[in-house]
Amino acid sequence: MQLVDTHVHINFDVFQKDLEALQARWKEAGVTRLVHSCVEPTEFDSIRALADKFPELSFAVGLHPLDVEKWTSESAQQILDLARSDQRVVAIGEIGLDFFKAENQEKQKTVFEAQLAIAQQLNKPVIIHCRDAAAPMTELLQKFWQERGAVQGVMHCWGGTPEETQWFLDLGFYISFSGIVTFKNALTTQESAQMVPSDRLLVETDCPFLAPVPKRGKRNEPAYVRYVAEYVAQLRGVSLETLAAQTTQNACQLFGLV
After folding, report:
1. Which of 29, 52, 147, 150 ranks highest by number of CB atoms within 10 Å?
2. Which residues, at least 6 apart from 103, have a Cβ–Cβ distance to it below 8 Å?
3. Could you give the CA distance from residue 122 to residue 204 in angstroms, rounded to a whole number?
4. What is the pLDDT confidence band of residue 62, given thresholds at 50, 70 and 90?
5. How much is the CA Rg of the chain, to the nearest whole Å?
6. What would the pLDDT profile of 10-28 be if each residue is shown by its tens digit?
7. C-alpha to C-alpha distance for 142 and 3, rounded to whole angstroms
């Protein structure tokens, strides 16, 4: 059985003392590929060093919506150049909109759209962060699709309602579920996990955040994606092996993993 953790942040300081043990545990759990997301371009060197260390790691480059105040006139070219600099860059991200307590919504939209354009130019998928912004996100994407054409991608760490889930499925996106889906009160997320077509489904940890039950409250890590997969398989009434095979195939399809 093989699993792909499609969203990790193992360059964070919390992992630096036990990276080899971390790898041993994810291998034991059946995790054969990982996609490392990027919060801001300054992380690129540290993420690339991890990919040098762990051949199973592919990665992305982009600017997170909570960091858009760091966007400058040079940022787009910087992201473009970094994405071109290494064949292990498989996506632009994580990018998106986070309107939770946000006062810079228009700036977020501008930066998000600029990075969508980079992904389209490079023919790479996007890894999208969307918090409290499903409706404006959908509106922006629909407008971009109409004016410039579609971009492939994934709604990562998804916690939206079934209605919102359908909006992004209709736009052609994959939907990725994290440990949130295992939480007792995450009923709408669980409903969404049941309705996503099997060929659009992904699993992730978003580690070190949001550890799934039964590890909730602890540091999350790639090995725990197995708990997410087990729970989603149970929700969908399929075996873990079936769910793992399908989500692995989907990850390879979206990110061009080999």
Report:
1. 29
2. none
3. 24
4. very high
5. 17
6. 999 999 999 999 999 999 9
7. 32
